[in-house]
């Protein structure tokens, strides 16, 4: 154990060990690569944790932040008019596709979801919320309550009355072998049953990730969200799309992950990549809903001048370089390696890919059960070969990859080669 790791363990919780037995100290980065304290360089196919959407040390972002610092104005986001904040809100409102959209800035995805839940429960006058099994929305009091992926078990009390929907989780024996159409029908019937129960006439919203991030990059079948939305609309229930991982064109199928489902949400929550490493998050919602927040909607640092300088530069870069098309163009390269991996060894279960989000399930070769131990072994093997990847899934057996959106074809091929080698 390194000296820094020992000091970390003495004074901080040991979450780091969820990933690596001996965590790395990152001391530098450029593009898709980072360097550790021993001078070793790695391709980062987790982009921080999808935080460094453009990679590391991006001149446009660095210079925008430096320009802001040079003005001397580094302060709260709530007391004064901030030009960069208004400009960013205008861009996000326009990109959201939500009619009359307004934007509320936070510092993180957790706060963004907490705000969206507040917005929906206040607007509808109900603490009842629909959430998806295997979901992840944060670890605060409200967000942990709607987190289906090991969230609730850790919490003693729920501030919300939550009903979990199957959606992306097709593991129940009743669903095995079902066609997508039959599955959607079953899920919609389940939703109707939930809404028909005596305790659930006034459900406020459904919160869902179009691509479940921590859950292992799992997606519902096409058509499921549209079917859900039809039922929700009948009841006036709001739909919150958590785009903290799936936004900005990463899926290659739309600027937001929800786009390919043909559904316009009532609110979108975002964070992670927008600041390219600088902390920013927020909610974009229908103006009438957002106006209900006026007395509660204050966050001292949410949308502060540094964060919005970084976010404006990052978003402009994404749009100017059309990174959505870039993700779509690179997707076949991912498939070329990923598809043959599935079934290539008894230890490889399903593989999933959506643009530049892709995953490999590791399973026990003898039993076929999800194997977190094997996933950890591959994570370490990839690191030894110069590739950093993520882990996740309900049982911690899913290898997750989401390289910076600026990754080029050569870097992608190199990383995929290493992955295949580490898995094999
Ligand atoms: N929502 C999703 C889909 C996430 O993946 C995460 C973090 O991983 C969050 C919310 C919480 O965001 P943050 O860690 O910025 O609070």
From TrEMBL:
Q: What EC numbers are recorded for this enzyme?
A: 2.6.1.44
Q: Which Pfam families match?
A: Aminotran_3
| Keyword Transferase part of the UniProt annotation | yes
Q: Which UniProt keywords apply?
A: Aminotransferase, Pyridoxal phosphate, Transferase
**Alphabetized InterPro entries for the sequence:** Aminotrans_3 (IPR005814), PyrdxlP-dep_Trfase (IPR015424), PyrdxlP-dep_Trfase_major (IPR015421), PyrdxlP-dep_Trfase_small (IPR015422)
Which co-factors does it depend on? pyridoxal 5'-phosphate
Record GO terms (molecular function): alanine-glyoxylate transaminase activity; pyridoxal phosphate binding
Q: Does the keyword Transferase apply?
A: yes
Would you say which domain of life the source belongs to?
Bacteria
Q: Hey, which family's this protein in? A: Belongs to the class-III pyridoxal-phosphate-dependent aminotransferase family.
- Subunit notes for this chain? Homotetramer.
Its protein name is alanine--glyoxylate transaminase
